[in-house]
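Hi F.,

I've been meaning to write this up properly since the lab meeting, where we talked about keeping a consistent format for the predictions we share between groups. The idea is simple: the sequence comes first, exactly as it goes in, then the structure tokens exactly as they come out, then a line or two of notes. No screenshots and no reformatting. I'm using this chain as the first example so we have something concrete to point to.
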Amino acid sequence: MYLLGLGLVFLTMKYLELGPVAAWDWWVVLLPFGLAVLWWTWADWSGYTKKKAMEREDARRQARIDNSREAMGMLSQKKRR
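Output, unedited:
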């Protein structure tokens, strides 16, 4: 996501001819977009995206379980402190 934002900033600066980006070649300005595509391709291929989604789901599930236990007064002594 950072690469996409950086690409949008560079593209805007190039279009409005602001700062040193105005003198850069177009391929340099568009490079962050290509890198973002490569990142997303790798993340999907390697399972990184799915792993992060599963970690978020597990954390939400555990928080829900902890809240339920706390509401019923079943929280262990360690977690109460």
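Notes:
The chain has two domains: 1-46, 48-81.
The chain has four helices and no strands.

If this format works for you, I'll send the rest the same way.

G.
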